[in-house]
Amino acid sequence: METLTAAQVLALAPDPASARAGQSLAGPAKWSAPGRNTRSVWGECQGSALYRTQVDLGGPAFHCSCPSRKFPCKHGLGLLLLLATAPVRVPEATPPAWVEAWIAKRDADPAKKTADPAAAPAIPEAPARRDAEREKRAAKREDRVRAGLAELQTWLGDLVRQGFAHAREQPARFFDAMAARMIDAQAPGVARRLRTWPGIFASGEAWADRALEETGALQWLLNGAARLDTLPAPLRASVRAAVGWTTSEQDLLANPDAERIDDRWQIVGQRVEEEDRLRTQRTWLVGERSRRAALCLSFAAGNQPLDVSLVPGRTLDATLVFHPSAAPLRASVAERRDSTAGIGEAAAWEDFEEAARYTAGWVSTDPWLERAPWFVRGCLPVRGDGGNWRLRDAAGNAVDLAREFAQPWPLLAVSGGRPVTVFGEWNGRVLLPLGVVAEGRFVALGREALP
Question: Which of 447, 373, 441, 352 is nearest to 407 (CA)?
Answer without folding.
Answer: 447
